[in-house]
TrEMBL record:
It comes from Acidithiobacillus ferrooxidans. This is Lipoprotein signal peptidase. Pfam families: Peptidase_A8. Coiled coil: none annotated. The gene is lspA. InterPro entries: Peptidase_A8 (IPR001872). It is an enzyme of class 3 (hydrolase). The active site is at D116, D134. It is found in: Cell membrane. Belongs to the peptidase A8 family. The keyword Hydrolase applies.
Amino acid sequence: MLRYLWLSLGVILLDQGVKLWLSHIWRVGQGIIIIPGLLNFRLIHNTGAAFSFLAGAGGWQRWLLIGIALLVVAVIVAILRRLKPGSTWTAISLALILGGAVGNLIDRIRLGYVVDFIGAHWGSLYWPYFNIADSAISIGAVILVLDAFRRH
């Protein structure tokens, strides 16, 4: 099932390309409104994990999060290698999660933070900023759960 790694590579390239482009055209905090009251793009540097968890921890969290990401990558690759033929949706979901994990891992190693830029909100209710890698991880997780329900 390693043939689905092309999907991981696509996520990594798209994620890193958009982050690089936005980092060249905007400074931190700059952005644009895409859909008023719903969606905007703004360049954010996240030193923490999901939802900026541990963002103010003083720097040690970078190495912890890199270690966790490397472990996740190793586990996902091992699972992909052992999947049986016909586990297409599981392979697709894991490939999306893998691509997202590597996309954010590259940021964390190279920059010390993750570049986020997608801001979703409903009026005054704001979801934490995220990026393409986070989206791939979320979509992969949803597919994995749905596939588990479908199989059982």
